[in-house]
Amino acid sequence: MLCKNIFDRVMALLGLLFLWPLLVIVAVCIKCKMPDGPIIFKQKRVGQYGKVFTMYKFRSMVNDASGSTISVSGESRITPLGSVLRKYKLDELPELWNVLIGDMSFVGPRPDVPGYADKLQGDDRRILNLKPGITGPASLKYRNEEYLLFLQSDPQKYNDEVIFPDKVRINLHYLENWSFGYDFKLIIYTVLGKKIKENE
Questions:
Q1: Is 44 within 8 Å of 54 (Cβ atoms)?
Q2: What is the mean pLDDT of residues 27-49?
Q3: What's the half-sphere exposure (Cβ side, CA atoms, 13 Å) at 187?
């Protein structure tokens, strides 16, 4: 996957250089609309081979937000500006830094918090051989995940029993069928806001 690693580093650098005005604008908006707290949200996530790293995102919740590790549309800890950032995935732009320094890839499984990664057993742990990604087939399938959880009477249970196992299955399929061309297709679908079919 040398070509994947080179592609990730080069495109992350170009992305940061090209998008820096947008990064500055988002940072200023957060400071103006959500002054009580940091601009950047930092959280420990599990990366390749189970190594824990710090993931960076624009803060979209009230300062010192606590509660579930899953997010549901409309919950009070997500600010109005945060809802907009999350809708258009602008909160994830700082993850370009994670890609540049090698913690993440453009395409791969979304990095889980340690508690969820610990649930991986047996063959499922093979997905830890992959670098976590900003986007991926599971991310595209569940791009409306927060709204889907909003519709459930018990969002945490639905996530643990339905969404999380399905994401593991999808990510194993990605691992077994990886190609650079498939990565490029997933990136294009992400930019266009399209869902990808299960076996596409």
A1: yes
A2: 94
A3: 15
